Amino acid sequence: MRPIVIGLAALSVLASSPVCAAVVKNHPAVTPYAGSVATRRDDDGFKSYALVTAVNEKGKSDEEVLQTLKVSGNLIRFSYENPKDRSAHEIYTNYREGLEKGGFQILYACIEKECGPSHATSRWGRVTGLRFFSPEMRYIAAKGSKNGQEIYVAVLVAKLRHQVEIVEAAPMEKGLVTAKALAEGLRLEGRVVLEGIFFDTDKATIKAESKPALLAIKAFLTENAALRAYIVGHTDGTGEFGHNMQLSKDRAAAVVAALVNEYKIAPERLSAHGVGPLSPARTNKTDAGRTHNRRVELVER
To answer: What is the DSSP letter of 199?
Structure first.
C-alpha cells in the first residue's frame, strides 16, 4: 500500500471530534478538531514536502534556520478557522496528545518563540508553504503509520486559524512521460498533457522532481525538430478568475523558459499561453476533477 503523510490537525482522531463544515471534504484518515470550520482544501498532486524538524536561530539562510525532513508524495492541504471558545494552545495540545496516543513519533514541536524569532516567520512560508503566522503560533511534525501505510504529519496552529498538511508519501512514478507517448498524444488529439511537471501551490516555480518529464519533452522536441507548439497552462475553478488566468500563463511560461534556457530548445518553436479555468478536462465539483484540471499541455501549432 502507498504510504501516507498527514498534516497534524488532520490526524486528530479523538472520538469526540465531529466532522467540520461539509463544504470541504475531509481526508478519510483525518478528523478535524471539534468545532473547527474548514475554509479550504487544496489537492496539489505529487510534491516534495518539507517537515520542520529543528530551528536554529543562529542560521543565516532559510535552510540553516529551519532544518527539515524532505518527503515526497500526494500533498493535500487543509485550512480551518478555530472554534471561538478554544485557545491555540488547547488545539495544539489536543492534536499532539491525539498523535501520541495513536502511536505517532513526534519529530518536532514548538510553541511561540521556540519556533524562531518574529522575523523568522517569513522563512516558514518559504520553506514549508504554510500560509499564516502569529505570535501564538504552534507547530508539530510527526511520523507514524496507519493501516500499513507510512504517515507523516504537520500542523500549524495560530490564534484564529490552523492548517493541516497531508502527504500520501510515495516515490514518484517513473516513465509517465516519454517521447513516444507525447508523439502518440499529438497524433491522436493534437495536444498532450505534460505529466510530471510539478509546481508549489499557487506558484509558477518548477520543482526539481519535474526533471524527468522535462528531459522527455526535450527528447521529443529534438526528435521532431520541425514541430512548433503552444505550451498552455490550465487551473481548476478554485479561486479568483484573474489570478488563475495569470497563474496558468506564468506556469506555461516557466515550462517554456526551462526548455529554452536549460534544455536548449529554440525559443521560436514554443509559445506560452494560459487559459486558467476556461478549458476543464474534468468537473471542478470533485477533488479528483480539480486535480486533473491543474495541468500544462503541449498543443501542436
So the answer is: B
Q: Does 21 share its domain with 143?
A: yes
157 in the same domain as 190: no
Number of domains in the chain: 2
Is the separation of the CB atoms in 177 and 195 below 8 Å? yes
Q: Are 187 and 104 in contact (CB under 8 A)?
A: no
- What pTM was estimated for this model as a whole? 0.53
Residues 23 and 138 in one domain: yes
Give the gyration radius of the chain's Cα atoms: 21
Q: Tens-of-pLDDT digits for all 301 residues of the chain? A: 444 444 443 333 332 333 344 457 776 666 789 999 999 888 877 777 888 999 887 777 877 888 888 888 778 888 889 999 999 999 999 988 888 887 888 999 999 888 877 656 677 877 777 766 677 889 999 887 776 667 788 889 999 999 888 777 775 555 467 788 888 888 888 999 998 899 988 899 999 889 889 999 999 999 999 999 999 999 999 889 999 999 999 999 999 999 999 999 999 999 999 999 999 988 888 777 788 899 999 999 9
Q: Give CA–CA dist 162/58, Å, rounded.
A: 27
Q: Which domain holds residue 292?
A: 179-300
Domain assignment present for 3: no
CATH at residue 243? 3.30.1330.60
Same domain for 124 and 35, yes or no, is yes
Residue 237 C-alpha cell reads as 475553478
Bridge partners of 232, per DSSP, are 273, 297
